[in-house]
Amino acid sequence: MLERKRKTDLFQQVRRISDMVRLISVRQKEPLGLGHAVLASRPAVGDEWFGVLLGDDLIDSDDPAIGQLAKVSVQTGKAAVALMPVAEDQTHLYGVGAGKALPDGNILVDRIVEKPPRGSAPSNLAVIGRYLLPPEISTCSSR
Description:
Layout: H1 8-20, H2 34-40, H3 42-45, E1 50-53, H4 65-76, E2 80-85, E3 95-101, E4 107-114, E5 125-133
Antiparallel strand pairs: 1-5, 2-5, 3-4, 3-5
């Protein structure tokens, strides 16, 4: 459409951006949870790091959340998950991450508790729908 409307500069910009990424959507045929959805993506992911973006979480940021996670993963070589503070009386509604605060403002997450009972959350940092994961995540098992 941009090309047809002779908006050459915009067309070239969109083309450059689209050449930088490979976007794949994997449909989960049954609602068996996020872990199952990630596992279902294995054939598409192969041996590449990949992002998980949950469509029901909108993040308004000048620096896209998945890009922030990518920077952290490149620096650390570790998976990254987005967290946001929520009111203490709301933690039972979310997965909650906790760990050691780092000097750069990030947190080395050592545990995530899914919807902890009221008053038992390890922090007030809710997991929001952005993850940057290594390919071997699909071969991990729970403890």
